[in-house]
Design goal:
With 120 residues, the protein is mainly beta. It has no helices and eleven strands. Strands 2, 4, 5, 6, 9, 10 and 11 form a seven-stranded mixed sheet that branches. Strands 1-3-8-7 form a four-stranded antiparallel sheet, with no helix packed on it. β5 and β6 (57-59) form a beta hairpin. The model has no long low-confidence stretch (mean pLDDT 96).
Length: 120
Amino acid sequence: QVQLVESGGGLVQAGGSLRLSCAASGRIFSINSMGWYRQAPGKQRELVAVSTNGGATNYADSVKGRFTLSRDNAKNTVSLQMNSLRPDDTAVYYCKCNGISNDYFPFDSWGQGTQVTVSS
């Protein structure tokens, strides 16, 4: 019922920048939180950054000061600006969104994932 479409990602050299974007569409009544997670090979999926409806944005310690999350509530979009990228940022990045659908049921949706590869 709620679809997430991701864009961005790719291959970049260490120290470079990339921007990821995610747009939510479908039967959305309201969105609570929206953000990004990542999963590196052989590792568990982890939080990168998330924006809550209360206005707070939480970042993983490993990306603080380098990544910036921006959310547009009117467009149901979220973007992740990633600067000073490092090889250990290499992972598949997933957009995640939860909230209430038009049927007044909660939803918790994931995007299909986008690859970010940082070369040394």
